[in-house]
């Protein structure tokens, strides 16, 4: 059977909807529907189909309308009737009443259901339930568009809330007598062309407490006043006086320029250079030199609890003698190569299976040798991560106490208690504690200076740098200082740096058991030297 078209017309012959499934013009379909009207009116048969010279019309009357199936004359009439019934059922599912206006309103849904029944003129083996299922399937693109629209509505609502909160904050400032931040914002972002910076500033301080806002405004007023004072470079004092605080907010470009003119002797080193610990020169190499280097990172609470810690280490090999380049390094017996807490990683040229089974570091190709150009080659790396409240990976434990000074208003007494780990029987050298406040009103309280601390430097980038030459192994000591700040939280986070380049043993116990020749069958032992070092990477008190 071939279905040429399906149409809905009125009893008077007016076409309402028509869907063609074969290559046939609109004029031809209109002509066929006109012929149908004449055939039906002159027919006295009780059958619901009529024929002319070329096509057959299978139809079904409903109310004041006909639904007509146009097929060729050779089509199976039984199948045609079944198809027409399916068309009528699908159409009824979209119409509550047989009204011409309702048919037009649901035209696309009705034609869509017709397309599901007929494909290229031939009926699909479908039921009404399957047709409804296919038509109700969701569109991925439509869902994405709906999500985008919902997100836009949500963002608009959030923006309205933010603006309402901003208006409320400004009204609160006005009632408290706090000056408007508009002028401060203009100065703060004077050199920036990005309007989002000002929005970010306002959004941040809108969430702050009233005390924190007022403290910041007072600091900015001092900064503005300092920028407006005429500066005489030749008469500017070198030291002393009250300074601005890093903890109370960063200075604007204008106030920073004025401060630099007023303080020509101020240091301007960056944070990296202020806390950077210089490495010693390479030690002499007598043939084979193995260096065990470890870096420590930790975040410690003000009470001294270790919140997070991490250790990264590497074993580096230096060879300057070709006769010793065919070597294998054996780890100490107490180090298990399969210990997953170390997270070992070998160099790609190292035999990984040999390392995991016997703890020996050797080249995969035994015929080859290590480079003997006296350059360091990292053959093994490891990483350990400590759990919360576990101080096993913290060689330096720090507790801090901050309290307002009993004798000097506007000053705070800050005391740090430093303790080396019992597990690490080595000294810590060149210890530096960086407090993020710029003030020249700072002094060490010698009554509580067990470790011989001194004020190393003060600058507006790093704040106050406290230096301790060495903390001996197993030592616990306190360092107390008095300095100016706006509020207690301005002292944190405190950055700490230390090193030990003359250690006898590594922090984790990593080392070298022996070095053997990879060419000789008996594995003759080779002479070697070992150095160990420990250095802080990101060590802070928060």
TrEMBL record:
Subcellular location: Cytoplasm; Cytoplasmic vesicle, COPI-coated vesicle membrane; Golgi apparatus membrane
Biased composition regions of type Basic and acidic residues, renumbered to the chain: 164-176
Membrane topology classification: Peripheral membrane protein
Protein keywords: Coiled coil, Cytoplasm, Cytoplasmic vesicle, ER-Golgi transport, Golgi apparatus, Membrane, Protein transport, Transport
One Pfam family this sequence matches: Adap_comp_sub
KW Membrane (keyword) present: yes
Primary site of residence: cytoplasm
UniProt record similarity statement: Belongs to the adaptor complexes medium subunit family. Delta-COP subfamily.
Protein name (database record): Coatomer subunit delta
Organism name: Lachancea lanzarotensis
């Amino acid at each position: 059977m071939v279905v040429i078209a399906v149409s809905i017309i009125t009893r008077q012959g007016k076409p309402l909807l028509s869907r063609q499934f074969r290559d046939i013009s609109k004029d031809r379909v209109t002509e066929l529907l006109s012929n149908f009207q004449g055939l039906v009116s002159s027919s006295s048969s009780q059958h619901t189909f009529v024929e002319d010279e070329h096509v057959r019309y299978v139809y079904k009357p409903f109310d004041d309308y006909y639904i007509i199936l146009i097929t060729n004359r050779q089509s199976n009439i039984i199948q045609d009737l079944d198809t027409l019934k399916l068309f009528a059922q699908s159409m009824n599912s979209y119409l509550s009443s047989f009204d011409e206006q309702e048919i037009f309103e649901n035209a696309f849904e009705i034609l869509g259901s017709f397309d599901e029944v007929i494909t290229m003129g031939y009926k699909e083996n479908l039921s009404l339930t399957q047709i409804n299922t296919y038509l109700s399937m969701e569109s991925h693109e439509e869902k994405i568009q709906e999500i985008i629209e919902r997100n836009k509505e949500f963002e608009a609502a959030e923006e309205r809330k933010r603006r309402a909160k901003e208006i409320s904050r400004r009204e609160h400032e006005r009632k408290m007598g706090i000056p408007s931040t508009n002028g401060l914002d203009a100065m703060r972002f004077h050199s920036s062309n990005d309007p989002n910076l000002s929005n970010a500033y306002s959004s941040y301080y809108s969430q702050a407490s009233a005390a924190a806002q007022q403290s910041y405004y007072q600091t900015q007023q001092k900064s503005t006043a300092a920028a407006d004072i005429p500066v005489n470079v030749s008469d500017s004092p070198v030291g002393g006086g009250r300074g601005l605080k890093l903890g109370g907010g960063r200075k604007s470009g204008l106030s920073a320029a004025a401060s630099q003119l007023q303080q020509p002797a101020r240091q301007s080193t960056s944070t990296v250079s202020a806390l950077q610990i210089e490495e010693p020169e390479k030690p002499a190499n007598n043939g084979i030199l193995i260096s065990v280097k470890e870096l420590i990172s930790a975040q410690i609470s003000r009470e001294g609890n270790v919140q997070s810690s991490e250790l990264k280490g590497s074993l580096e090999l230096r060879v300057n003698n070709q006769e010793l380049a065919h070597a294998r390094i054996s780890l100490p017996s107490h180090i298990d190569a399969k210990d997953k807490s170390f997270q070992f990683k070998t160099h790609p040229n190292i035999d990984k299976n040999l390392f995991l089974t016997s703890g020996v570091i050797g080249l995969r190709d035994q015929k080859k040798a290590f480079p003997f150009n006296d350059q360091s080659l990292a053959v093994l790396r490891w990483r350990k991560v400590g759990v919360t409240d576990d101080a096993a990976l913290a060689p330096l434990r720090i507790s801090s106490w901050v309290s307002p000074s009993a004798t000097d208003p506007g000053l705070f007494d800050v005391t740090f208690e430093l303790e080396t780990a019992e597990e690490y029987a080595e000294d810590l050298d060149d210890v530096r504690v960086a407090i993020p406040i710029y003030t020249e009103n700072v002094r060490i309280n010698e009554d509580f200076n067990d470790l011989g601390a001194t004020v190393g430097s003060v600058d507006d980038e790093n704040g106050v740098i406290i230096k301790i030459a060495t903390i001996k192994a197993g030592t616990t000591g306190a360092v107390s200082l008095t300095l100016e700040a706006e509020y207690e939280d301005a002292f944190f986070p405190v950055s700490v740096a230390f090193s030990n380049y003359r250690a006898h043993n590594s922090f984790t116990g990593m080392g070298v058991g022996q070095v053997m020749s990879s060419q000789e069958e008996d594995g003759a032992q080779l002479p070697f030297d070992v150095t160990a070092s420990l250095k802080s990477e990101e060590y802070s008190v928060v």
